Amino acid sequence: MTAMTKRTTYSVQAPGAVVMVRPHHFTVNTETAADNSFQVMHDDDADLAAIAYAEITATARTLQDHGVTVHLFEDEGKVTPDSVFPNNWFSTHAGGHVAIYPMKAESRRRERRADVIEMLKTRYRVQDIIDYSGLEPDGLFLEGTGAMVLDHIDRVAYAARSDRTDPIALERFCTHFNFEPMVFDACDEQGVPVYHTNVLMCVATDFAMIGLDMIASERRRAEIVMRLKRSGRDVIALTNDQIRRFAGNALELQGQSGRILALSATALAALDREQVKAIGAFAEPVALNIQTIEKAGGSVRCTLAGIHLTCR
Fold first, then answer.
1. What is the pTM of this model?
2. What angle do CA 133, 22, 265 make, to 5 degrees?
3. Where is the secretion signal located (predicted)?
4. Is 16-306 in CATH node 3.75.10.10?
5. Domain ranges of the chain
């Protein structure tokens, strides 16, 4: 099978539709800064808001130009600074299943929106919704596909331990949605735990990108690499510097002419020529300029909630 044939073959790993939220009053969330070392604080919130609005507008348009269906929701409120990252509060799954997640920060709990769920029910076949948000009073958090990087093909949920990824909540999700949990410890050079797994790794159909040096246990690191390779994927190792520049925070999508890898311009610039070539064998890299939104500690993958449901 040629690389181009692989690109155009349908994959359950690469959704052809996403939910995005366009913020009207974007700010960097001070409540989440304590355990998110990727955040950059900024004084001029008004300036940030206008630029972030434009970045999401351009990102949605670029994805649509590549044939990705974008359901774009507006957030005109001022109490949900991280609403631009909808992948943390819900996820969708083949067979018509939807999960709603428990969030650590109170400000993030307000991001959950009934209109998003109603759109999913109207446009797609939804069989059931499992709501884990009731775990929040017990301090059990699992922040969606930020906390987990899901392999929809091999049915593995990769998860770096953190305050936002509770093992009890993870076990419940994996039992309900038929995933095998693969948990590991990950931290940067200063020993700071990685707050969300999806800044550390991306699992696509035929390849995976992962910051191996951040995984504390050599044995666990080898097990993860073996598992990814066993599923037939090429493993692209990312350096710590590339992780800091959001190279791991990418999402494979199905476009009109084949699969693409949505990632930020910052992330693509961080990759070397051989890494870009390895990605390009299976998916077209599509760079998106969201440098202002990245100040909030997340990048392209965080702004995209993939839809793994069947259209009505």
1. 0.93
2. 105
3. none
4. yes
5. 16-306
Q: If you count DSSP H runs as helices and E runs as strands, how many of each does the chain have, helices first?
A: 10, 15
Query: Average pLDDT by consecutive 10-residue portion of the chain (312 residues)?
Result: 62 98 80 47 66 96 98 95 95 98 95 98 98 97 97 97 93 98 92 90 98 95 97 97 96 97 98 98 97 91 98 96
What does the buried/exposed string (b/e) look like for 43-60 if buried means 16 or more CB atoms within 10 Å of the residue's CB? Answer: eeeeebbebbbebbeebb
Q: How far apart are CA 296 and CA 275, in angstroms?
A: 26
pLDDT of residue 159: 97
What are φ and ψ of residue 146, in 5° steps? -90, -45
* Burial (CB count <10 Å: 0-12, 13-18, 19+), residue 274: exposed
Q: Are 26 and 52 in contact (CB under 8 A)?
A: yes
